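User: Is it possible to get a 3D structure for a protein together with its bound compound? The compound here is flavin-adenine dinucleotide. I've pasted both below.
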Amino acid sequence: MAIVSHTLNTPDRSTAMLSPEEIAQLRQKYYNATVAYLYKPHDELMILRVRPDFPIPPYKPGQYTTLGLGYWEPRVPEAQPEELAEDQVRKVVRRAYSISSSIWRDGDLIRPEDETELEFYIVLVKRANGKPPALTPRLFRLKEGDRLVCGPKITGHYTLDGVQPDDRVLFLATGTGEAPHNKMILELVRSGHRGPIGSVVCVRYSRDLAYLQAHRRLEQYRPNYRYITLTTRDPEVREKKYIQDILRSGELEERLGWQLDPSCTHVFLCGNPAMIGPPKKDEQGNLVFPQPTGAVELLVRRGFKIHHPKDPGNIHFETYW
Ligand SMILES: Cc1cc2nc3c(=O)[nH]c(=O)nc-3n(C[C@H](O)[C@H](O)[C@H](O)COP(=O)(O)OP(=O)(O)OC[C@H]3O[C@@H](n4cnc5c(N)ncnc54)[C@H](O)[C@@H]3O)c2cc1C
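Assistant: Yes, that's possible. Here is the predicted structure of the complex:
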């Protein structure tokens, strides 16, 4: 298979491979949604709202769909260069994205009838071990009004199914792993959930907390809601703490103001697999946890049980890679 010898990072190089007419035809053929809103707290993080050409199907908070762009689209110049086989240039790359929410609109909680777009919270992956990241270097070139692919199906088992109105609910996330939690928290608050809710997010820098104000506001609005942030690389951070550390030490419960009692608590974990530590099963069906210890193992040790759709439990997780 012929490999296109040059890298595809600049608009000039990528568009040079196909004529403007061919690119227009490919976009016309594949793209089925429009960028309705785009906010970048900084160059590597964005909140993106997409308006599909089709009616948004019913879905549950916590679920995800796909976004896609053609390989013919340009990449941000700072991303790892990519080599494409000639037949790949006309294809579309798609990735999964959880549906997020900004929680507030015009000073009030967003109402279901106002949710006419899908919101996503996406970080730029500039380089990866193995194949160069294909989609985010292209998504970060988008502007409002641009077109893209949005998957027509919204799916996933990472939902609030099984959570009762008086349960304690804890959300643990790294980075953009808070996306599904934002939507789930909005749903809980809108539906009058009575139990306490906590959301913890671990990021490198404070600037990576795009939803901070929305959550601080929610803490004012709903007294038994807590938003706890951990930053690992801010200059003023003297002791680097990860979610696993505050879970293990008891600091998490102290800051939440309530205990992680497995008889009445659901824990949702999303994002980096190193934080989550999803176990595998050995031949005897025993759970084998990865090293270093992740949050799931710490919770199982405390009497929590991993949720499966056919065998319900109170630990729910979604790994992003
Ligand atoms: C169910 C599901 C939901 C997802 N929802 C989101 C979401 O809401 N927001 C989001 O930013 N990503 C999300 N992802 C990850 C997303 O699908 C892409 O993998 C990611 O955007 C990178 O795409 P890429 O093509 O640029 O690189 P890829 O080739 O897909 O990934 C290359 C590498 O980048 C790293 N990586 C992937 N995702 C992230 C991330 N979020 N943060 C840091 N490093 C990462 C991993 O090391 C991965 O191996 C989700 C993944 C799954 C499975």
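The first helix runs from residue 11 to 17. Residues 168-319 form a domain with the Rossmann fold fold (CATH 3.40.50.80).
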